[in-house]
């Protein structure tokens, strides 16, 4: 596909993906209450009629089958001190906001890389992972039990994950409203059900095997929550600033941030998750990177670039989400040209050259982002390969001895997840997203059940870099210290193997995307 046509097609797909689908205007009362009284939007209620039985890891019920019998209310065991019982049966270990002295003095870590992927939940992307709390079924708003169905990365449909849809999915703490919205599709669906059951799906393991390999070798967190109920824009703000300024959805026009066209607005969220106004997506506040600048600590944001002719002169693609673009003094200050760079694959050049900054944010190319909805007829399936390439590049370089990769996803993407998120403020928490901690210091084969959120990644980075707090979600969040063991025998890095032998784990492969034409996945 020609460069300009390709960019236009991607724009349409991603625009549909950011607010895709149609959300039911009639928010139903919580199921099983016996009355029409509803709690305030965003309030957390008892999971009610959900069964607490969890299938054994690795088992999957027959895809697509439903049971119309309403399950009997499950019993909940009294959680141990410091833990919270969840519908999945695995206790959530309460987060501690106290900095861990071992981590704070971990002078062995010199580099932190936060990789920002797109739109997945734990149940969707790590279904059946041994030891992790996943569930192979959910419930619709009327109490109907529904088994999760396998759905590949290439599927051209994108579940609605707007802020109103997220509140609807949460359904006043029942977590059973995912069937009430329809996905948006970049091309007519072929293997996608015409109703909301796409939202109840998981990625087959053969497509995500590199993620499984990384999580098996290092640390997977199954109590990592998005800090918000909604889509990508606030997610990226939390992952860079630890704060979204109460902006709860995607702006109405591209690009997002201070560069948005005049008249662009984004909803402002108030009490109970309600939209209380509109605001231009540009504000000003001190941030973590201001602390880094003051201390002389190097940092860089590697932004997506489609590497097509009509985008080569732009700072970043109109579909990219750069949280720092929303901070006025960063967008119009020296950092914008010095520390926000594209294309994202420049990180591989910097690793090879020994010039990796101390603090890094990385936005992978769209085709390697895991974003649902598809490009090139549905091919957005290279996220596992991209992250294996990154891990291999670090693991086989001088940086393996002092670097931590924090691999996470920017929002839930509208996919079902069975763990009800705690509600800490008007914005969330949102549904679970995966977090994989990759480092020689990460606990080997460990599943973290501690409550984390996006502020945890910022707090960890602040402690490692010796920076002060921003005063936002990093204050209440934990610092990921349970994911590390600085006394363990560190393993020599074993590269993630490209089992298909088709050059997908090479830097050059990603550097030339998406100029490669045709189908990119043999499955």
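Sequence proposed for the structure above (523 residues):
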């Amino acid at each position: 596909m020609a460069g300009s046509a390709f960019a236009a097609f991607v724009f349409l797909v991603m625009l549909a993906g950011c607010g895709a689908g149609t959300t039911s205007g009639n928010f139903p009362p919580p199921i099983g209450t016996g009355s029409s009284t509803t709690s305030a939007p965003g309030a957390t209620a008892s999971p009610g009629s959900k069964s607490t039985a969890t299938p054994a890891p690795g088992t999957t019920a027959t895809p697509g089958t439903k049971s119309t019998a309403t399950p009997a209310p499950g019993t909940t065991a009294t959680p141990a001190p410091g833990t919270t019982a969840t519908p999945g049966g695995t206790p959530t270990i309460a987060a501690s906001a106290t900095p861990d002295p071992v981590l704070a003095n971990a002078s062995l870590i010199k580099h932190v890389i936060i990789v920002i992927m797109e739109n997945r939940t734990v149940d969707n992307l790590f279904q059946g992972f041994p030891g992790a709390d996943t569930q192979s079924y959910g419930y619709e708003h009327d109490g109907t039990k529904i088994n999760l169905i396998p759905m590949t990365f290439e599927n051209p449909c994108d579940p609605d994950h707007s802020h109103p849809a997220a509140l609807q999915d949460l359904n006043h703490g029942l977590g059973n409203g995912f069937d009430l919205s329809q996905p948006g599709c970049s091309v007519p669906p072929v293997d996608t059900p015409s109703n909301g059951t796409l939202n109840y799906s998981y990625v087959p393991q053969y497509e995500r095997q590199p993620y499984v390999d990384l999580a098996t070798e290092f640390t997977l967190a199954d109590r990592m929550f998005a800090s918000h109920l909604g889509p990508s824009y606030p997610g990226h703000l939390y992952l860079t600033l630890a704060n979204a300024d109460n902006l709860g959805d995607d702006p109405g026009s591209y690009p997002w941030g201070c560069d948005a066209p005049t008249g662009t607005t984004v909803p402002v969220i108030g009490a109970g998750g309600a939209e209380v106004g509109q605001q231009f997506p540009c504000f000003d506040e001190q941030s973590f990177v201001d602390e880094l600048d003051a201390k002389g600590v190097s940092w860089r944001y590697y932004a997506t670039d489609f590497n097509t002719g009509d985008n080569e002169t732009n700072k970043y693609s109109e579909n990219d989400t750069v949280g720092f673009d929303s901070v006025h003094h960063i967008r119009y200050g020296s950092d914008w040209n010095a520390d926000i760079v594209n294309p994202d694959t420049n990180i591989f050049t910097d690793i090879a050259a020994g010039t990796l900054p101390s603090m890094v944010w990385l936005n992978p190319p769209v085709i390697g982002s895991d974003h649902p909805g598809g490009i090139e007829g549905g091919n957005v399936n290279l996220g596992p390969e991209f992250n294996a390439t990154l891990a291999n590049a670090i693991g086989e370089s001088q940086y393996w001895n002092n670097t931590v990769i924090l691999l996470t996803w920017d929002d839930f993407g509208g996919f079902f997840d069975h763990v009800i998120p705690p509600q800490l403020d008007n914005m969330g928490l949102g549904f679970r997203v995966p977090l994989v901690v990759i480092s020689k210091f990460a606990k080997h084969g460990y599943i973290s059940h501690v409550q984390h959120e996006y502020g945890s990644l910022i707090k960890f980075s602040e402690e490692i870099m010796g920076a002060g707090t921003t005063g936002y979600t990093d204050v209440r969040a934990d610092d990921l210290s349970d994911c590390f063991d600085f006394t363990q025998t560190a393993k020599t890095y074993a590269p993630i193997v490209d089992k298909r032998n088709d050059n997908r784990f090479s830097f050059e492969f990603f550097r030339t995307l998406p100029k490669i034409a045709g189908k990119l996945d043999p499955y």
